[in-house]
Amino acid sequence: MVEITADSTIYDLLKAKPEATEALFKFGMGCVGCAIARGETIREAAEAHGIPLSELLVALGIKE
Question: Residue 17's closest CA among 33, 29, 1, 38?
Answer without folding.
Answer: 1
